[in-house]
Design goal:
Length: 365
């Protein structure tokens, strides 16, 4: 293959922007095939047919803001889905926007946040950017939230505790009873933020939503997203479920409004239950295939409850990532202090086959 100067310069510029995007984009610019991207916990099956059709119908409305009626219809549908009144529901441009809004609310006036380490960092990174103090508590030997240690970390300045359940990047999950007991032990002024982005993939006994805790004496915020099981990461839609008084605060702290395509797609996806069930079955089957292969190679892995697997490669992650990249597979970034551990997204069945071949070759190299 001959690469001209323009292609070469374009590829070089892309490579300077960052390794994950750039390898895929630069190779395409140079006329080569794109590598397999398994580093962002995306749902490879994408939006449901109903959501795709809704986007196609709504594209002509791309010059318009979503109407109040359209937004109200979505909120009402989410409320029915959750078995709640619409006053309990707060939509966001992905659940990430709501995490950032929660950082603002709970970090005011010298407030402090507590989170596990490692965990999903959108809330904590945004909070630290605002100058909010964050106390990280290492996960336990099973790579699960260490609830006793997190409770011990609660102090007079603590305003919120963040539980990503199932956790990202470890994939482990806490049973509902453990979360309920933990929340009950907190001072009433401390907000419990429970991020359930991956709950749809959980299969462990006792692991279920913390949403019933909203009716208790403590303030609990449960976050959900359309980025995972609904396959809409690029469309940006999420929501929170919480008590109406706190929901009003959260609405005021939002920074944007949902786009018209995501509103229509989310509304349609909620009803496409057959597709969602099929997607879940395929991802769970592939997850089992990956963990079985890791067990055969005697590679330790955290018990996965999401659409990804966190496992020990037995070598520095940078070395493993290079070996996988040489075989056209991009894997997850480093999550300190787990310097030899890799987070791998579960792809389609053909993608899993490609990953497993590359994994065998990389471990044996």
């Amino acid at each position: 293959m001959t690469v001209n100067r323009r292609q070469l310069l374009g590829s070089a510029a892309l490579l300077l922007a960052g390794p994950a995007f750039t390898l895929r984009t630069a190779r395409a610019a140079a006329g080569g095939g794109a590598p397999l991207v398994l580093c962002w916990n995306e749902n490879p099956y994408g939006p449901s047919p109903a959501a795709r059709a809704a986007v196609a119908r709504a594209i002509s409305e791309g010059c318009r803001y979503p109407s109040d009626a359209e937004l109200d219809d979505l909120v009402a549908a989410l409320a029915r889905h959750e078995g709640r009144d619409p006053a309990h529901i707060v939509t966001g441009t992905g659940s990430g926007e709501l995490l950032c809004a929660l950082a603002q609310i709970c970090g005011r006036d010298g407030g402090e946040l507590i989170a596990a380490e490692p965990t999903y960092l959108e809330l904590t990174d945004y909070a630290q950017g605002l100058g909010v103090a964050v106390r990280f508590v290492p996960v336990d030997a099973q790579l699960t939230h260490d609830l006793p240690a997190m409770r011990a970390a609660v102090g007079p300045r603590t305003r919120a505790v963040y539980l990503c359940n199932p956790n990202n990047p470890t994939g482990t999950a806490l049973p509902a009873e453990a979360i309920s007991a933990f929340v009950a032990s907190l001072p009433e002024e401390v907000v419990a933020i429970v991020d359930e982005a991956y709950m749809d993939f959980a299969t462990a006994p006792g692991v279920r939503s913390a949403a019933p805790l909203i009716d208790g004496t403590h303030t609990v915020v449960v976050l959900r997203t359309f980025s995972k099981i609904h396959g809409m990461a690029g469309l940006r839609m999420g929501y929170a479920v919480t008590r109406p008084q706190f929901a009003a605060k959260l609405r005021q702290a939002r920074m944007t409004s949902p786009n018209v395509l995501s509103v229509h797609a989310a509304r349609a996806s909620l009803e496409d239950r057959e597709f969602l069930s099929s997607t879940r079955r395929k991802i769970l089957a592939s997850r089992t295939r990956i963990t079985s292969a890791l067990a055969q190679r005697e590679r330790r892995y955290a018990t996965p409850q999401g659409n990804f697997v966190f496992f020990d490669t037995g070598m520095p992650l940078a070395q493993f990532a290079r070996r996988m990249q040489e075989r056209d597979v991009l894997v997850g970034r480093l999550f300190p202090p787990y310097d030899s551990w890799c987070r791998i997204t579960i792809g389609t069945e053909p993608e899993v086959e490609t990953f497993l071949r590359a994994l065998e070759a990389s471990l044996d190299a």
